[in-house]
Amino acid sequence: MIHRRVTARRIALAAGLVLALAAISAANLRLNLSTAQVQRECNVRVTLLQLNDVYQFAPVDGGARGGLARVLTLRKQIMSESPHALFLLAGDTISPSVESNTYQGKQM
């Protein structure tokens, strides 16, 4: 009696798995067809422009290097080529954090 219950459960489980796989396969096939159409119609390129720890706004070395005006020029060029570009600023701006100034780095 127990053997029949276990076998019946296994058959029911196997049938359920087969049905689930069939449903997933059918949905996946349908999704692949529509995805292929979308991929042909829509390409998006994402560009990241990230700055870290900006302490000097003006150019250095007699104007030969650096400066936020150069960053702005580069950003405008990138945005014209890739309008989905993200401009990110990570790290400190102008000076280290308030904690660093207050505790002179002891919080680290």
Topology:
Blueprint: H1 2-41, E1 48-54, H2 68-81, E2 86-93, H3 98-103
Parallel strand pairs: 1-2
Quick take:
This protein is α+β, with helices and mostly antiparallel strands.
How would you explain this protein's 3D organization?
With 108 residues, the chain is an alpha+beta fold. It has 2 domains: 43 residues; 56 residues, no CATH class. Strands 1-2 form a two-stranded parallel ribbon. Strand 1, helix 2 and strand 2 form a beta-alpha-beta unit. The protein is elongated.
Give short descriptive properties of this protein.
2 domains; 108 residues; 56% helix; alpha+beta; single chain
> How many helices in DSSP terms?
3
Strand content: 5-15%
Question: Sheet with the most strands?
Answer: 2 strands, parallel
Radius of gyration (CA) equals 29 Å
Shape summary: elongated
Number of E strands: 2
